[in-house]
Amino acid sequence: xxxxxxxxxxxxxxxxxxxxxxxxxxxxxxxxxxxxxxxxxxxxxxxxxxxxxxxxxxxxxxxxxxxxxxxxxxxxxxxxxxxxxxxxxxxxxxxxxxxxxxxxxxxxxxxxxxxxxxxxxxxxxxxxxxxxxxxxxxxxxxxxxxxxxxxxxxxxxxxxxxxxxxxxxxxxxxxxxxxxxxxxxxxxxxxxxxxxxxxxxxxxxxxxxxxxxxxxxxxxxxxxxxxxxxxxxxxxxxxxxxxxxx
Length: 246
Prior knowledge:
By secondary structure, the chain is an all-alpha fold. It has helices spanning about 10-20, 25-30, 45-55, 60-70, 75-80, 85-90, 95-110, 125-130, 140-150, 160-170, 180-185, 190-205, 210-220, 225-235.
């Protein structure tokens, strides 16, 4: 049975269950405090919003999404299917993102993809379904499952903030790799999504800054630090882990 984090009380119940199950999380929770639930719009619009933000600073992503949502009402898969590529380009989308969104629209229209069904699937299977789509990487898949669908067991193994939080909180000698993150999270199934919220909160408490996924999923104003770092460094290289460097 898939657990969903639909409300703050759902998250709080999950966090308390995790702390009770794994004593190592008790001191982590004491420092982190109770994390706030982060949710975003589900469906095509929610996934498209995340795609628009890939490899961009928060400010740039917000500006592009603002133009798109103003130009298309509603901004859905039918609108993208009908839209001319040059019009989407003038609104700020790169050729690669236009191709990704057009492909997503076709998959949904042809009934080969049902984004809402992913909420009921095993987290790893749902993740695989998303990353098998052209232009959808692990970061995008994790954000969609966690924050658009409220999937209670989605696990952002590639997020640097979660990795660094685990390194500090569990007293590891080195930050775990994406591959190492899978076995580390096994004790937290089927609540790995709730565990991720806890680790982001812990990272924020000990590092005094917000992780990228958590910040993006909350609000633009809550990710000022990440936006400033991105503005200085430029675009995040494609395929790289999205979390901030420690």
